[in-house]
Amino acid sequence: MSSSISTREGLLSEARALSGQCWRVVESQSKASTLRLTDTLDEQAVLEGEIEKTKPPIPAESSSLHYLLFTPFRYSPYPSNSRFRRAGLTRGVFYGAEFSETAVAEIVFYRLLFFNESPNTPWPSHPIDHRAFGADFETKLAIDLTAPPFTNYRERWTDPVDYSHCLLLADAAQDADVQVIRYESVRDASGRANLALLRSSALLTKQRFPEETWLFHFSTNGVRAICENPRKSLSFDPQSFSRDPRTTDWVWDR
Q1: How far apart are CA 82 and CA 10, in angstroms?
Q2: Residue 204: DSSP 8-state
Q3: Residue 173: strand, helix, or coil
Q4: pLDDT of 32 over the 70 cut
């Protein structure tokens, strides 16, 4: 990799301003589980409070954020390497996408990866609710891996399983106080952009943000994702993620 983009000074010379909306998708279960375990709202509040005590403290720089926004910065040690975050006691990364559809494609892939760790487990009998939300962000220190000179190394940034080059870049970006990395999604068939927010201070949104409700239905034929408002849908057949070698032994017939 060129030294111009592998050092603190090199990254700072390529950094630029970037702003927009960062979409993230989570499963809609945050309160439902405690509702099932309690009889009144007061009991639920007590149980939620006890659960909160077991969690790591909220980082001071993220304390003004909605819990959906500070959660990626809260938990450590991190269990395993992801594209821009190393396993262990490392700084949090808020992974998102420029479009909710891209964020849906990303989470569908990782849901399938999870299910295929247990190939004898049947698909869920009912569609699963997911919540997409968009947070505004702005920074003067972003790097864009879809633009030169980073495009010279596109195959390194878009490898579906080998994150080693991305992690080295993230190390240098953290050292340079880069706040956002824009990069091509490997899971979105349209190749639209993902966003990795390395600092919660890049988030302009604090408590209110646009939301979409998506239903994911898993079956032998693939995954269907449907959003009611605004009305849109996506489908992923068993070949949708075939570029990733981990998909070769996925079990669809359950």
Answers
A1: 23
A2: -
A3: helix
A4: no
Average pLDDT of 218-230? 96
Length of the chain in terms of residues written: 254
Give pLDDT tens digits for 190-214.
999 999 999 999 999 888 899 999 9
Rounded Cα distance between 211 and 43, Å, is: 28
Reported as a single tens digit per residue, the pLDDT across 53-102 is 888 899 999 999 999 999 999 999 999 999 999 999 999 999 999 999 99
- 115 token code pair: 């299910």
Distance CA 1, CA 150 (A): 10
DSSP H stretches of helix in the chain? 8-14, 32-37, 41-53, 67-74, 100-115, 154-157, 164-175
Q: Tell me the two tokens of residue 234.
A: 């996506």
- Other CB atoms within a 10 A radius of the CB of residue 92 amount to 20
CA distance 19 to 92: 20
CA neighbor of 20 nearest in space, from 96, 108, 83, 102? 96
What residues does 195 pair with on adjacent strands? 96, 182
- Reduced to 3 states (helix: H, G, I; strand: E, B; else coil), residue 109 is helix
Kindly indicate the confidence band of residue 223, based on its pLDDT and cuts at 50, 70 and 90: very high
What DSSP element (H or E) covers 17?
A: strand 16-27
